[in-house]
Design brief:
This protein folds into 2 domains: 69 residues, no CATH class; 152 residues, NAD(P)-binding Rossmann-like Domain (Rossmann fold, 3-Layer(aba) Sandwich), CATH 3.40.50.720. The mean pLDDT is 92. 37% of the residues lie in helices and 20% in strands. By secondary structure, it is α/β, with parallel strands linked by helices. The longest helix is centred in the last third of the chain and has 17 residues. The protein is elongated, with a radius of gyration of 20 Å.
Length: 231
């Protein structure tokens, strides 16, 4: 590989940026495509699908064969609120490949007995995320029902263009949330990205069912963002 390409690829990995190394199998050419780069011809569709699936492989386009070596950051999930839903969601999300962190400053909820084996931080979100905040491969799930805890990470995730931002609460609760976030300077387009009420509408009732609905919506936002509307 061209040393300059390798340097660029390693930089993308360090910065948690999505990249695909495109190798022409017929002529041995190499180039690095970052997500969002313009690509000509029908190769663009194949590269777009690879960015969504995260799977490497051989494709045919423009009368040639290419190997697409896909490099995507591991998806993260930040759960704000050590509640019953989080107890069910955290292990399920971890099993599906997410790097999960649960954050809640309320030490009565954020206990290792309730979250065995989970990366649990009993701090305010702005402190817990000081050194590792949101990016385009992070999902935020805010479920405390407390604006003092939820609002800061919601604002930070939307500004960072996290791929998923969801918040628990009724439509009335979300209406008040919209007012607060608007006053905080967020645009209507940014606020419209919040999935609220959170989770797919599957009629979920128990914390476990709600966790399933949330996880399904998060995965859809990661793999099929074109179907998720404002999320």
């Amino acid at each position: 590989m061209d040393p300059q390409l390798l340097t660029s690829l390693n930089a993308a990995r360090r910065n948690r940026q999505a990249a695909i190394l495109v190798t022409g199998l017929d002529d041995g050419s190499n180039r690095l495509v970052m997500r969002g780069d313009a690509v000509a011809g029908d190769l663009a569709a194949a590269i777009g699908k690879a960015f969504l699936s995260g799977k490497s492989g051989v494709v045919e386009a423009q009368g040639q064969r290419f190997f697409l070596n896909v490099h995507l950051p591991a998806p993260r999930m930040v759960i704000i609120g050590a509640v019953h839903i989080s107890q069910a969601l955290a292990p399920m999300a971890a099993r599906t490949g997410f790097d999960v962190k649960v954050i809640d400053p309320r030490t009565a909820f954020a206990t290792q007995d309730r979250f065995k084996g989970v990366n649990l931080v009993a701090e305010w979100p702005e402190d817990a995320l000081r050194d590792r905040s949101f990016d385009a491969f992070t999902a935020l799930v805010a479920v405390t029902h407390d604006p003092k805890i939820d609002d800061w990470p919601l604002i930070a995730a939307l500004k960072a263009e996290a791929f998923y931002v969801g918040a628990l609460g009724s439509r009335k609760t979300h209406g008040k949330r919209v007012e607060r976030l608007t006053e905080a300077g967020l645009s209507s387009e940014q606020i419209a990205r919040i999935a609220a009420p959170i989770g797919l509408d599957i009629g979920a009732q128990s914390p476990e069912e709600i966790a399933v609905a949330i996880l399904a919506q998060v995965i859809a936002a990661l793999r099929k963002p074109e179907d998720m509307g404002g999320v």
